[in-house]
Amino acid sequence: MTVEQPNASPHATAIPSTGRKLVVVGIGVMFAIHTFLVTVWVMPANPFRDAVGGQNLMSYINNGILPFEQSWSVFAPTPRRGGENVKVRAYIGEPGSKTGRVTNWYDVTADEDQRIKYLVNPARIHSATRRLGGNINSSVAQFSPQQRTVIGASFITTPRTELKKMLLADNTKGLAGQINIGSYLDNDEMLTRFGTMYATARWGKGVTAVEFKVGHRSVPNYSKRNDIDFKDVPFTYYDIGVRKAIPGNADAQAAFDGYVRKAPEESATKGGS
Amino acid sequence: MTTEQAIAPDPVDSEAPSRSVASRGLDLINDWYDSFESWLLTDKRSLYGASLARILAGCSVLGILTTNFRVRNLLFGQASVWNKPLQDRGLYWQPKLVDHLGNTTFLFYYLFVMILAVLFILGWHTRFIGPLMLIGHISIIERIPVLGDQGDNILRVGLLLLMFMHTSEYWSLDARRRAATDVIPVGGEGGRVNLVALGKNLWNSQQVLPRWLTNGLHNVVLIALAWQVIIIYFSAGLFKVQGALWQHGTALYYPLQLQEYKPFPFLTDLFTHVGVIVGLSTYAAVLVQIGFAFALLHPVARRIAIFCAIMFHLAIAVLMALPWFSLSMIAFDAIFVSTSTFVLFDKWIRVRMQPVADLFWDVADPLVERLPAGLRR
Questions:
Q1: Which residues of A touch B244 (CB under 8 A)?
Q2: Residue B192: pLDDT band with limits 50, 70, 90
Q3: Model pLDDT for residues B33-67, shown as the tens digit of each residue
Q4: For residues B59 and B172, is the Cβ–Cβ distance under 8 A?
Q5: DSSP string, A23-85
Q6: Which residues of chain A make contact with B36, given a CB cutoff of 8 A?
Q7: H or E segment at A176?
Q8: pTM to 2 decimals?
């Protein structure tokens, strides 16, 4: 068999002079340093990272201009083995008042599941509550019983800054605990924003507050894979208390209106509390 | 034959025994250096691979944007305000470009970036379109960091490196235009640079910078991209071997049960029902990732490794509903395929696709003829 070769290259040139070689060497050194730093960044914890300095490395990778950020611990060391679920209900009108009402719980994640079935290229929005629910579950799993009670409380008139203060007051895990609280607060706010616009699209205008249940279930052990169906495993829920609605602008709401299925006429609890 | 005759030096190679091991070692290093210097500076390498990487990476960008088109406002437009806490701490400046666009303006911006992706795939003025597409892509995708995935990482990092490479040598409109035009000399009177000629050469995708520089740059970045792909596999493999479930050969079973990674339940159940298949696949995933770099050192092992990597990603695409991540990885794996393989493939595909190409040009040429002269290329 003959080996096919390309035609003569139009880019072929002689070995350049030493000065020109040095220019290419300079480019090479630049890319070599970059590549070394990226390598140290993506590898599991290693002595080179300590030598370079974690903060130095982070400021190089996350430089704000060139996109170098990356991470490759995909499904490792421990693969994902938990499913999430988010349910939402909305308070229309003033919560607790005679004119206000509260909707039934709606399973947002189940709706997302329906939308991704048999889709090999699902849109990312169909992972929204799964991702937020997963993040919240990870954070809450590390919370103390007191902190779990705090997140289950209502923050309608009390500003969100108080939620942060109360969680920090119950923090017993130092810096790691603070980071976990920061992560929780981000996801709590994202879920509230998402839930507000979602609920407005589903139940109409006038949503003043939203409330969530965030569930988790684990994939049955490998040895039981042919006996128990993952979908039959019940969720264990954390209660996320009532949160004051955070609406978006008209364009944002219009986008949710076009995506969310409208609620059928339902009996709502008057003056839900 | 006497003993003296047996140990007498060969008259043709009379100096050989006198050369020390160190001397021969230095000669070997010298040969390696000469080979590497020639490889690095005298031509652009892996041009077929770079061209295919351009096409497939462009397809990934287009695929991601197309997949999310109907929900673009929820994800990337005004409604993406729901992930404001992470948006505010975004790692990149590009998303600020679309911060204030309303739904209608954002639609046009989104379509514009999709068109850029199409042009990048076709290789139309790749030098200009590539950076624009990359900026446009990041400006949209990074509006929603909370829903990002590893595919975004490889696409962003790989595309950035591709921008420094010559990716339009094959299968591109740039190549067609280059073949139809000549390089215009840019040296004017008195050593001045003729900027008009320079601009025309740029527009015609002709050589502008000296070859020694572009060859060196292309090859250096090719090495950087190759290393990037290698460390992706290697680090991912290292993380996996630390995990007990990967060691036990059952790790793949767990994520495959989750709804988001189970688009075809029957197919997945078929896969996970037999333990041996789960075990083989789990170990194969680790083996391919850890061994990829080492397999590249041998021509046969390299072909096997690339084939396994492509199969691995095709399986991820279908079984786990991650097609654009998989396509991005395959795109950058393409740089490891040898030129001779590409030449064979090129000939094979050209023969089979000739009727389609003839039909395309039969339709396209009369249309192009109607365009103003300046737009025909």
A1: 77-78
A2: confident
A3: 999 999 999 999 999 999 999 999 999 999 999 99
A4: no
A5: HHHHHHHHHHHHHHHHHHHHSSS-HHHHHH-HHHHHHHHT-SSS-------TT-SS---EEEE
A6: none
A7: helix A174-203
A8: 0.90
